[in-house]
Design brief:
The chain has 445 residues and is of the alpha+beta class. The protein folds into 3 domains: 2-94, Alpha-Beta Plaits (2-Layer Sandwich); 136-242, Chitinase A, domain 3 (Roll), CATH 3.10.50.40; 251-436, Trigger factor, C-terminal domain (Trigger factor, domain 2), CATH 1.10.3120. It has helices at residues 7-22, 37-43, 45-68, 120-133, 194-200, 248-254, 261-295, 302-322, 334-339, 342-361, 368-382, 386-395, 399-417, 431-436; strands at 2-5, 77-83, 89-94, 110-117, 136-139, 150-160, 177-186, 208-214, 228-242, 420-427. Helix 4 (120-133) packs across helix 7 (261-295), helix 6 packs across helix 7 and helix 7 crosses helix 10 (342-361).
Length: 445
């Protein structure tokens, strides 16, 4: 956007600032508050110009944006600025605006909502997960270790062979020693290399076994990747998992408020049905959003996409930190992972513009009560007081973002309320979902 600010405006604002400054500055030879404006303009030329620009530029740009009815996103920047001989200003602004697009029809959309039906077998699987989590580890003395047993060993080894890149690392160097005491290995478990299971099958406490493990090229930590390690394992304990009986006592162990196994089954079913309803709603809203995005194809501002990619990465880092992982210590191609988020980020940004346009057309607004409820729910989720969270959001300028999220959600609610909805039954939840509900009350070895 190119603007010309008239000389009269420039001079008037400069005179105003100079007059104000004349009452404040100390200049040798003049009493404080009686410095002539001409002297101030001469001695404080740069300060006057900077202050004048800080007042005139935003005001002129704001008027131009209002006149052109532009929907500005992001912060405008000055690309070029020149003072003409007559003291007028010629300035070029870079202004990012919301993309122009013709919104497709968003009412009476044909939509399909998944409805998850909880089966008896889903309840059974969840109870089996609970049972597995409450298994007791019992020492084995009368037989050798077998698949499913937990073998505790003092492990010693030497790294030999080639690196992941194929270079021979053994010539002229001492083999790296590996030593780990009281290491627990579950034979046949996911993530346990087959050489460990094969090398330790049949062992008893006190046995000494030697075997070689060939690590895959992509193994982490990288010092093992593509290498062979010769191990000696001293077996100290072999234990097996003893599962509890599924009876009334087991139900009370899971939840002291439950009295019978039928109570437990009813409690598990209720929780799975709640999860099924939550998943159904989440998937339905997501698929509705995808349909809106597919029906409205337009380019979105690159800088907004970049911000969304950063936001997705920050969410990933917080999730990793919540699991006790420090992303800074991992040798990962973070830039590659970030770039892999681009397509999803573009669709999310496009979806946000679509919902914003719908909210504008439907004159959807967010009341202070709705905003307060959203902040309260957010505060409850992160264990922080509502007042503290609101103060933080106000300080970092995030309240508008929260308000926009609520507004967009209401716009999507409107789309769904007007839709022609069919339901599609789906039998049961995934094993991951039933396992998640089977984590209560016990830790897994």
């Amino acid at each position: 956007m190119r603007l010309e600010i008239p000389a009269e405006t420039v001079r008037a604002e400069t005179d105003k600032i100079a007059a104000d400054l004349a009452h404040k500055v100390n200049v040798p030879g003049f009493r404080r508050g009686h410095v002539p404006k001409s002297v101030v303009k001469t001695r404080f030329r740069k300060e006057l110009r900077d202050e004048m620009l800080s007042q005139v530029l935003p005001h002129s740009l704001g008027n131009a944006i209002k006149e052109k009815e532009l929907k500005v996103i992001g912060e405008p920047s000055v690309e070029d600025l020149k003072f003409k001989d007559d003291e007028s200003i010629d300035v070029i602004f870079n202004v990012e605006v919301a993309p122009e697009f013709v919104l497709s029809n968003y009412k009476q959309l044909p939509l399909t909502k998944p409805v998850y039906v909880i089966r008896d077998e889903d309840v059974d699987k969840t109870i089996e997960h609970l049972r597995d989590n409450h298994a007791q580890l019992v020492p084995v003395e009368d037989r050798g270790a077998q698949t499913g047993d937990l073998v505790t060993v003092n492990l010693a080894g030497q790294i030999a062979g080639q690196s992941a890149g194929g270079e021979d690392q053994s010539a002229g160097t001492e083999p790296e020693e590996i030593k780990q005491d009281e290491l627990n290995i579950e034979l046949g478990a996911d993530g346990v290399l087959k050489e460990f299971t094969e090398g330790l099958t049949g062992v008893k406490p006190g046995d000494l076994r030697t075997f070689t493990v060939n690590y895959p090229a992509e193994y982490k930590p990288e010092k093992f990747a593509g290498r062979s390690v010769n191990y000696t394992a001293e077996v100290t304990v072999v234990r097996t998992r003893e599962l509890p009986e599924i009876d009334d006592e087991f139900a009370t162990t899971i939840n002291e408020e439950l009295r019978t196994i039928d109570d437990l089954r009813a409690d598990v079913r209720s929780k799975l049905e709640h999860e099924a309803e939550h998943r159904s709603d989440a998937e339905f809203r997501s698929s509705t959003m995808e349909k809106l995005i597919d029906r409205n194809r337009f380019d979105v501002p690159e800088f907004v996409v970049e911000k969304q990619m950063d936001s997705r990465m920050n969410t990933l880092f917080r999730q990793m930190s919540g699991r006790g992982m420090d992303p800074r210590t991992l040798k990962v191609d973070w830039e590659g992972i970030r770039e892999g988020q681009r397509e999803k980020a573009e669709r999310e940004v496009r979806g946000s513009f679509i919902l914003d346009r719908i909210a504008e057309i439907e004159t959807i607004d967010v009341s202070e009560e709705e905003l307060s409820n959203e902040i309260k729910q957010y505060a409850d989720n992160i264990g922080q007081s509502e007042d503290v969270l609101r103060a933080r959001l106000t300080k970092d300028g995030s309240l508008d973002s929260i308000r926009e999220q609520v507004r967009n959600r209401k716009a999507l609610d409107l789309v769904i309320a007007s839709a022609e909805i069919q339901t599609e039954e789906k039998q049961g939840l995934s094993d991951e979902a039933t396992a998640e509900h089977g984590q209560a009350g016990g830790g897994q070895v």
